[in-house]
Design brief:
Elements lengths: L24 H15 L22 E5 L8 E5 L1 H6 L12 H4 L2 H17 L3 E8 L5 E12 L7 E12 L6
Antiparallel strand pairs: 1-2, 1-5, 3-4, 4-5
């Protein structure tokens, strides 16, 4: 698996100021989970995510993935409306297909990497970078992932986080 490129390491692209709230969604999701961990003495599980509010503005960019030991078999369980829009997904998750068959090819490895790294790091993982699009523009992204247990000390785990992106013109375009 190759590593997605870093925004800061890309040469030749116009840089623009971050898009405010949207650029912070991954940090909001990580902070939300860390707060739940503090509140529950480090024993927070998926029940702490308030899955009933999936249609709320707080969940717009968030996702929940059932991570499989064979990471390519991981499944999207839930996601917010903005997440679906950005990744051209149906309104509700298809839990019968692995994420690599649902996500646009330009982002499949990013999500596999995030799911894999949170298990190894046992800490929040933040990924950002940019990818070339078929239309010649650049898509800049930011994602945050945290490992969430199904129950305390369970071997089964989920990946919770948020994703956002924006499309910009390549330097010299336009």
């Amino acid at each position: 698996m190759t590593n997605p490129p870093s925004i800061s390491g890309a040469a030749g692209w116009r840089r623009r100021a971050p898009g405010g709230r949207d650029r912070r969604e991954s940090e909001r999701a990580i902070a939300h989970w860390e707060e739940k961990q503090r509140e529950l003495g480090g024993e927070a599980t998926v029940a702490a995510l308030d899955l009933g509010s999936i249609d709320s503005p707080q969940w717009a960019n968030r996702f929940l993935i059932a991570a499989d030991p064979v990471i390519e078999r991981s499944l999207l369980l839930l996601y917010g409306g903005k997440f679906a829009e950005l990744l051209e997904l149906p309104e509700r998750a298809r839990t019968d297909l692995p994420i690599v068959r649902q996500l646009p090819a330009r982002f499949a490895e990013l999500f596999l990497r995030g799911c894999s790294e949170i298990r190894k790091a046992a800490a929040a993982v933040r990924l950002e970078g940019e990818v070339a699009r078929d239309d010649g523009r650049i898509e800049q992204y930011r994602a945050g992932f945290v490992s969430v247990g199904v129950r305390p000390r369970a071997l089964t785990w989920l990946a919770f986080g948020a994703f956002n992106s924006r499309v910009v013109e390549a330097a010299g375009a336009g």
